[in-house]
UniProtKB/TrEMBL annotation:
Residues 1-20 are annotated as: Disordered. Residues 1-16 have a biased composition (Polar residues). The keyword Phosphoprotein applies. Keywords: Phosphoprotein. Residues 113-162 form the FHA domain. It holds the Pfam family FHA. This is Peptide-binding protein. Signal peptide: none annotated.
Length: 186
């Protein structure tokens, strides 16, 4: 058996030690390969162990050889497509928001505004996707807080479901079940 010092080196004298940056690049390629489904979990774990134990560049190269990484241009194009896609989502939300009925925020200091199908609520919404006691809108510390009251079909703000409570402001799109509104000030 040969000892590590008797292995051939890249420079001919002493083996060149891997840098942390080289090892991290290889680990990142392995993580990306696993995230994209190119590696099974077991293969990913084994290759990570081998990458952490590797002593030479060729050992790292062998671990990532079958995982082609995207080139600079591919990353640029994919990043641009992602940015345009994100912009179109914001544009669609803005377009829809202007077409939604307005829900006026109550005067600060007023009692919390209860929202739901029950006639005793401050805002009664007679729709089958709205719960009897659906949500509550209140002013707290200079901010507006929208709290879901355990509704069946959920409350959302700007397309995200409210779990518990969320801070809202004029211009936000709020939904109670399938009814949507745009918050506005008087």
């Amino acid at each position: 058996m040969t000892s590590p010092s008797s292995l051939p080196s890249e420079s001919g004298t002493n083996p060149v030690r891997l840098t942390d940056a080289e090892r991290e690049r290889a680990l990142e390629v392995l993580r990306e390969g696993a995230a994209l489904g190119r590696l099974s979990h077991d293969t990913f774990v084994r290759r990570m162990e081998l990458a952490l134990a590797a002593r030479r560049r060729d050992e790292l190269a062998a671990l990532t050889a079958d995982l082609r990484t995207e080139g600079r241009w591919s990353k640029l194009v994919l990043g641009s497509v992602g940015a345009v896609s994100g912009f179109t989502v914001k544009l669609r939300r803005a377009w829809q928001s202007e077409r939604l009925p307005k829900l006026l925020l109550p005067a600060p200091g007023a009692y919390p505004l209860r929202i739901g199908r029950d006639p005793a609520n401050g805002l009664r919404l007679s729709h089958d996707t709205v719960s009897r006691l659906h949500a509550e809108l209140s002013a707290q510390g200079g901010m507006w807080v929208l709290r879901d009251l355990g509704s069946t079909n959920g409350t959302s703000v700007n397309g995200r479901r409210v779990i518990g409570a969320a801070v809202v402001q004029a211009g936000d799109q709020v939904s109670f079940g399938s009814l949507s509104f745009c918050l506005a000030t008087a």
